[in-house]
Amino acid sequence: MRRDPHERRAVLPLPVALGERTVRSVANLTRADGEAFMALAARTKLDARPVTFGLERANDALEDLRRGAFDGAAVLLTG
Amino acid sequence: MEDLAMALVSPRSPLVALRRPVPVPGPGEVLLEVSACGVCRTDLHILDGDLPRCARRSSRAMRWWAAWPPWVPAPRASGRASASAYPGWAEPAATAGTVRPGTRTFATRPSSRAITATAATPGTRWRTNASASRLPDAYDDAHGRAAVVRGTHRLPGLCHGAAGGAARLYGFGAAAHLIAQVAVAEGREVFAFTRPGDTRSQEFARSLGCAWAGGSDETPPAALDAALLFAR
After folding, report:
1. What is the DSSP code (8-state) at residue A19?
2. Do B159 and B183 meet the contact criterion of CB atoms below 8 Å apart?
3. Which residues of B touch A27 (CB under 8 A)?
4. From the list A26, A53, A73, which residue is nearest B174 (CB)?
5. pLDDT tens digits, residue range A20-67?
6. Which of chain B's residues have a Cβ under 8 Å away from the Cβ of A52?
7. How confident is the model over B133-184, as pLDDT tens digits?
8. Chain B: nearest CA to A15, how far in angstroms?
9. ipTM
10. pTM of the entire structure?
């Protein structure tokens, strides 16, 4: 027997039906986002915690990142 | 003159060091020296072969010297900038013919680079959607790179997810440690969720001003109205 597709909607518990939520995925940014962040970074001195590696140690940086071996951000230096 | 590149030759294998000639800029192009390069979890996905499309695209940007994008004012010789591939991925002009056929690269997106201009000419040429922003003087390359690579594209998420002034962060890594500081500076109450039992990261979060830090299996002191989740 085919079910009425609206039937399922009717059985949602009221708190669920009324408690609206929004899910948003953020994976990209606009140029304006970048400029806004730079302005904010200039205003608020952010305490970035770079864990630096020489470029030739990129594999070590990746492995440490994978293991969660450090807090902060891994940065490769080319100099 | 040669430069060094760490290349991903095939997925799920270590990067390989390549020595390649520094590209010669064409007419109207500018050479930029990359001084710092952020590493983020996306790079692990590329390394693991989860993002073949990205790997293929980034291979076309593989070089430690790059051309200045046209919409950025020609930099002074001492200018520093952070380049970002967002929106879009870099598509260097044909003159960037330094990628060896069959190789794929890691951490070559312009988003991963803090760059120092070494020369500038007007009328630059660059076929890409990459963008660049000037780094605030308060940051050296490494710190600036760390802040930008992780902070920039999480900011819209914070603005969206922090309704009511509170900020709840699930995951406390490179991005969250910056976003938390932004939120604290704005007077928001920040809760930080870490991996269960990760007391080191919890202490780190508290040291940055988070009002509460605990494992993702713990109950925070107040119910959450919204949260920012860092996908992995």
Report:
1. S
2. no
3. 153
4. A73
5. 777 877 766 666 676 777 788 788 888 887 888 888 888 999 899 899
6. 142
7. 556 667 766 666 555 555 554 555 555 555 557 788 998 887 788 888 888 8
8. 15
9. 0.70
10. 0.66
